Amino acid sequence: MGKNQKRYDGAHVLLRLNEYQRKDGMYLYKYRDETGETRIVYSKALAKLREKEKRIQRDLEDGILTGRRNAITVNDMFGIYMGGKTELKEKTRINYEYLFGKYVSGRVGKEKIAEVKYSQVKQFYIYMIKEVGFQLSSLEIIHTILHSVFNLAVRDDYIRKNPTEGVLTELKKDYKWHRPKRHGLTEEEQVAFLTYVSGSKRYRSWLPLFVLLLGTGCRIGEMIGLTWQDCDFEKNLIDINHSTSYLKGKDEKFAFSIGSPKSETARRGIPMLEVVRRTLLELQEAQGHRPPEELEIDGYTGFVLRNRNGNVYNPSSVNRTIIRIVKAYNCEERDRAEQEGREPLLLPHFSAHSLRHTFCCRLCENETNIKVIQEIMGHSDIATTMNIYAEVAEKKKQEVFCKLDGKIKLL
């Protein structure tokens, strides 16, 4: 057969250059990839084959790596991505590898990087919500990982566009989801909480932790890892220079680890309030009378806060204890209010992080310098500080006008 002789398929349709039909009816198209290696794609229908041809030619013109992308998987790309993230904090790396390995690698991870579509990513996210039980807020971490992996694939010319783009936003609209707004405790609620814990035989041992959280605005990881070396009683200053995490590793076992703070701005000095200084000195004296067994985590020793087993506090245990305290307080408060014929002062559901938010609210109520507030809180983005300040300012405005009502003679 001559080189330029026309060829037809079984339906007598003219075949183009490099198009062929086998005896079993299957169509194929031969081409050379970016490395010069011969590649073949197949299709049962000629129209489908020509769609593939069109995509291949477009990819070759745009410099997309058509040959290599047919072999590389999402799992492979994740490995390349993690290998290049040398600046990742160790706890973040452990968390990413755990989440990807547990939830992604056996599903989307096995797919060829070039074959993953938007609809497939969306179905995977829906599966994570409905079958695995993930909340949309928790799914954001997995989305962050996948979005970054596919972004790298785009930059390395394996694919033209990121199939995860816009998926989570669409799901949030579908589920009518809004990020819950954090609220600190009011001053009245804060006093009620601390008073109840202080007077409780069951929960009083937790009082120093809550006082320190409410008196410094520290993140829970910063506070549970605080050491005596970080407390300068001469300068009346607490040095925040590391943070503690309790995470599950590749071996599926949970363990404490200590690393650098959340961001550079998280490295900060916090002046000691008098109640904070007094609480620290009481803890120091108690440890001096009953020296606990030495505990070391990643080279750090001399921890300020130790539970009854001599270990540092587990953040999850702290939050579970707060839930129990709130439940017990509210139950007793309802009974007291009924006996005294008044409305009960009930505590809302909150977490250890809410105590940090509460401290920030008290700070905003008493300080007008936003930059000072940002530095004490260790916020990397001043917008975070501004949002809390604006919320507090709005409440203050309402209080001021309530006090003015009837005092300004208008008629």
Q: Would you mind describing this structure in some detail?
A:
It is a single chain. The protein is mainly alpha-helical. It has three domains: 7-69, Classic Zinc Finger (Double Stranded RNA Binding Domain); 74-174, DNA polymerase, domain 1; 187-396, Orthogonal Bundle (hpI Integrase, Chain A), CATH 1.10.443. It has 15 helices and ten strands. A hairpin with a 4-residue loop joins strand 6 (231-232) and strand 7. It is elongated and about 100 Å long. The mean pLDDT is 87.
Keywords:
3 domains, DNA polymerase, domain 1, 411 residues, 10% strand, mainly alpha, 15 helices, three-stranded antiparallel sheet, 10 strands, single chain, 50% helix, Double Stranded RNA Binding Domain, hpI Integrase, Chain A
What are the secondary-structure elements, in order, as H or E?
A: EEEEEHHHHHHHHHHEEEEEHHHHH
Number of strands: 10
CATH architecture of the largest domain: Orthogonal Bundle
Please report which band the strand proportion falls in: under 5%, 5-15%, 15-25%, 25-35%, 35-45% or over 45%: 5-15%
Shape: elongated
Q: Which value, in Å, is the CA radius of gyration?
A: 30 Å
Backbone structural class: mainly alpha
How many domains is the backbone divided into?
Answer: 3
The CATH topology annotation of the largest domain reads as hpI Integrase, Chain A
Assign the CATH class of the largest domain.
Mainly Alpha
- What is the H level of CATH, i.e. the homologous superfamily of the largest domain? Intergrase catalytic core
Model regions low in confidence, pLDDT < 50 over at least 5 residues: none
Strand order in space, largest sheet: 3-4-5
Oligomer: single chain
Q: In this structure, how is the largest beta sheet organized?
A: 3 strands, antiparallel
What is the average per-residue confidence, as pLDDT, rounded to a whole number? 87
Which percent bin holds the helix content?
40-55%
The rounded distance between the terminal residues' Cα atoms is 106 Å
